Amino acid sequence: MKKTLFALAALSLPVAAFADGHAETSTDPHMSVEAMADATLTQDTIAWDFVEGITTEVGPRQAGTEAETRAREWAVAWLIENGFENVADEPFEMETWVPGNLATARVTAPFAQDMVIQPLGNSAPTPVGGLEAEVVFFRTVAELAAAPEGSLDGKIAYISHEMRRAQDGSHYGFAGPARWVASGIAASKGAAATVIKSVGTDYHRNPHTGGTSWPEGVSPTPAGALSIPDAENLERMFARADGRPITMRIEMNPEFIGTTISGNVVGEIVGRNPDLPPVLIACHIDSWWNAPGAFDDGAGCGIVAAAALHVSHTGQPLRTIRVLFAGAEEVGLWGSRAYSEAHIDEHIGVGLESDFGADRIWRFESNFRESNPDLHARLAASVARFGVAGSTITASGGADINISRDQGGAIIDLQQDGTRYFDLHHTPDDTLDKIDPVQLRQNVAVWTQIVGILANEPRSIQTGGPIPSAPAIMEE
Amino acid sequence: MKKTLFALAALSLPVAAFADGHAETSTDPHMSVEAMADATLTQDTIAWDFVEGITTEVGPRQAGTEAETRAREWAVAWLIENGFENVADEPFEMETWVPGNLATARVTAPFAQDMVIQPLGNSAPTPVGGLEAEVVFFRTVAELAAAPEGSLDGKIAYISHEMRRAQDGSHYGFAGPARWVASGIAASKGAAATVIKSVGTDYHRNPHTGGTSWPEGVSPTPAGALSIPDAENLERMFARADGRPITMRIEMNPEFIGTTISGNVVGEIVGRNPDLPPVLIACHIDSWWNAPGAFDDGAGCGIVAAAALHVSHTGQPLRTIRVLFAGAEEVGLWGSRAYSEAHIDEHIGVGLESDFGADRIWRFESNFRESNPDLHARLAASVARFGVAGSTITASGGADINISRDQGGAIIDLQQDGTRYFDLHHTPDDTLDKIDPVQLRQNVAVWTQIVGILANEPRSIQTGGPIPSAPAIMEE
């Protein structure tokens, strides 16, 4: 575990391990985790196999629908075929919204033309035949919030609220409220519908969907996202209308269909010491109905599964590595919450998630830098050779590891470069071709290295001390 | 006309000429064409005003429809407002195809998922409720052509036939037949429908439409284009299906609606000598229904109109400059043919067209390099300072100047960089944001320079000799 030499050139993996993406034949207990991580950097095919498979053989997989069920069945079969143990689909109930099959928008005056719109998650339907009203332009959510009560009666609120690219994705926090809360604010002021500029950073005619929400006591209205070129065109219309009202007709037929079944898919690389809390590595299996879910989050599931297998190929790890493909993440973390509820009494050693695309990991963060500085430093140092920097930021974990937050447990964030993530996020353009195989393999290498260390760590990951519930682990 | 010094930094245009895109106030007869061309490189706003205006205030404008009529009305008003004379909308009849409002595709087995499709121009509709059949995969048009007669009975032919980017757009000649003729070939072999990989070079879920054709005696079938990510996904399905048949359901409702009226919009900068054959500078006003037509060809119309105005601002030119915004180009050059038919007896001095986007002009070509080498050399030399190279290629002109070809007249091609043209061509992504204002202005500068020379050329452009029909022009 202290080896730091970078010896990639001298390494190669057994061919059988990578020719068909299966794991059974490739165990090499003489190979170190470091050597394995180095080899995956150029040779991994497992992550690609997963993301190619799920996007080709399943495609979009909206939470709570039959498409998500097929995705879970596909993932269960894939995990079993690749040698995972204790593979299961743990069901849970959810309240399910579906987008319908109709989403049209047209500016009717003064500059008649169609626009590309998609409903936001939790949108109400329009009346059959559509809804036509004057559009009121707000540059920001704050401007909308400042509009007088009742000032939007019967109108369509349009919120611009521009997003910018950021490597760490932090602009999502700035721009996200346009999607998360604007429709609720507009509805509370009497708006008949809300239309937003997509929360995204690309210039293609594919709107970014995603969930919106409704405050207590506010009835849902139709709420949709325009593609960014359409939104900018609408804004130019305001500039050219010379004060004439701009009217728009929209028609959408999303609906809530009541309670359906989703599920969390799990699988394990069983460790030598079952008393030690497992390493939980997570992603989500669902995608929005409009998105094939390559970046979000087929790649994440491929990365964590590949890392687990590569670690197992260096010999049985000390701790169990559990992969969690959470269901119904996009529509409100239903799977992550259900998993935490079901397993809250089972102590998780550490939780990690991959859910931010497939571009290069550039920063390592943990939430135990102060409580277990030796392990934090050892982990950070172990991935420096892959161009991953350390950080003093405290990891908070992603959407799919609620259980680690709920337990107050150890968390690691392996931050991916998100510069182009919001070009693709929740759009039809989230397709396999967007994944750069070189960067995908860098993810696998970093994850293999980190998971390999964690899964062979005998002491408490959070504190470095002996784990009270497992006193018999002093074998190192 | 012999000035070759590059004095851009010292030049500026009267502010009034560019603040609102109007021309009336800006005439400066003391300014040379060279100085004006230099100034437009950094200061032109006219071309942008046109393309922003037509994409914002009209948007998509399918030939023969009310949208194209609105586009012509808009263009007539714009030309008049900007000071053109003899502005007219010259009507012609055409047989009109419309795309309908329904275009869906879904792979039904073995890997059920929706795909994004759009009909090709001249496609027949599917039966109401759609058409489901096995898909037969052809890598190229040649493979399709080699399929035995009747071998496609009742099936859907899919043609891949990959396109690559090329600066000169020459790969369109290689890839285009997949759209132009494959559906006709497939139909002649019994296919129920044809689906092609979009003839394009981008990776977005917006199919490239465009016209297809049917051989004599072959009944039209449904014919559509998948977006390139969808097409590649379909091809991966073939690789993963282990021989199982791949079935697809498509539904589209395009139709021929009979004879409608389109038109050619013309306007002039009237020259000092009306006996001299005019300089004809052309573009087309229509776009496919799915495309706002910024690159194709709003920009082209903006460029030629801006150049005409800038030349006029240096003083009344010797020859008349006529702009032609041809109608119904996309669906078969109806406007270009109608214009030639109506004006065939009116000798055109030289024809030029801008219809390849808005990226930088990089090459100058004429068809009179041998017949009038002095003028060819002078023109080529005049735009070298804008990074435009000469060429020994013989210009053949674009779609909108049939009249010059029909007359056997002088033609110039100002070749634009087409590297990203087929990312956008005939797709919803052909929006204003794709236009780089810096490159657009380089186009205007080059056109201003070239048109300025041509419009002040007293001798025959084609031969350099006196023009027989206008003997009184020896005023230079």
Largest sheet properties of chain A:
8 strands, mixed
Residue ranges of chain A: pLDDT <50 for 5 or more in a row? 1-25, 470-476
CATH superfamily of the largest domain in chain A: Zn peptidases
What class, by secondary structure content of chain A?
alpha/beta
Oligomer: homodimer
Task: Kindly provide the radius of gyration of chain A, computed on alpha-carbon positions and rounded to a whole number of angstroms.
Answer: 24 Å
Number of domains of chain A: 2
CATH topology of the largest domain in chain A: Aminopeptidase
> In the CATH classification, which architecture of the largest domain in chain A applies?
3-Layer(aba) Sandwich
Task: Give the mean pLDDT of chain A.
Answer: 93
Determine the number of helices of chain A (DSSP H or I, runs of at least 4 residues): 15
| Order of neighbouring strands in the sheet with most strands of chain A | 3-2-9-5-6-7-8-4
Structure notes:
2 copies of one chain form a homodimer. Chain A is α/β, with parallel strands linked by helices and 476 residues long. The first copy, chain A, folds into 2 domains: 8-97 and 258-473, Zn peptidases (Aminopeptidase, 3-Layer(aba) Sandwich), CATH 3.40.630.10; 100-253, Glucose Oxidase, domain 1. Helices cover 31% and strands 21% of the residues of chain A. The first copy, chain A, contains 15 helices and 15 strands. Chain A has helices spanning 15-19, 33-43, 46-57, 66-81, 141-145, 171-175, 177-180, 182-188, 228-240, 294-312, 334-343, 373-382, 402-407, 421-424, 437-455; strands at 85-98, 103-109, 113-115, 117-119, 131-138, 156-159, 193-197, 223-226, 247-252, 255-269, 279-284, 321-326, 350-353, 361-366, 410-416. In chain A, strands 3-2-9-5-6-7-8-4 form an 8-stranded mixed sheet, sandwiched between helices. A 7-stranded mixed sheet of chain A has the order 1-10-12-11-13-15-14, with helices on both faces. In chain A, helix 10 (294-312) packs across helix 15 (437-455). The longest helix of chain A has 19 residues, at 294-312. The first copy, chain A, is elongated. The interface between A and B is medium-sized, with 35 and 35 residues.
